[in-house]
């Protein structure tokens, strides 16, 4: 195993994420996405569309903070959950 991969695994596990040692991928969860002010969508973190605009105009920190305070993240996630349900995909939290 590569030394960097071991470091990645340890740091990801500290974040509460599952690390797949066979392919080096991590499985994110809703709690992790929320901690980054992102929506949890289709098993991954998703940046709401207006967040890009906020970050461009205000900078990354202020833009992401505004996204966290707005209802956009919740609306984006609700749309993703509805799409998952309509396509018969398993909804995981």
Task: Summarize the structure in short.
With about 90 residues, the protein is an alpha+beta fold.
What does this structure look like?
There is one protein chain. The chain has helices spanning 3-14, 30-35, 49-58, 60-69, 72-86; strands at 18-20, 25-27, 39-41, 44-46. It has 93 residues and is of the alpha+beta class. The protein has a two-stranded antiparallel sheet with strand order 1-2. It has a two-stranded antiparallel sheet with strand order 3-4. Helix 3 (49-58) crosses helix 4. The longest helix is centred in the last third of the chain and has 15 residues, at 72-86. The mean pLDDT is 78.
Quickly list its features.
93 residues, two-stranded antiparallel ribbon, alpha+beta, 4 strands, 13% strand, 57% helix, two-stranded antiparallel sheet
Oligomerization status of the protein chains? single chain
Structural class: alpha+beta
Biggest sheet features: 2 strands, antiparallel
Query: Into which percentage range does the β-strand content fall?
Result: 5-15%
Shape: flat
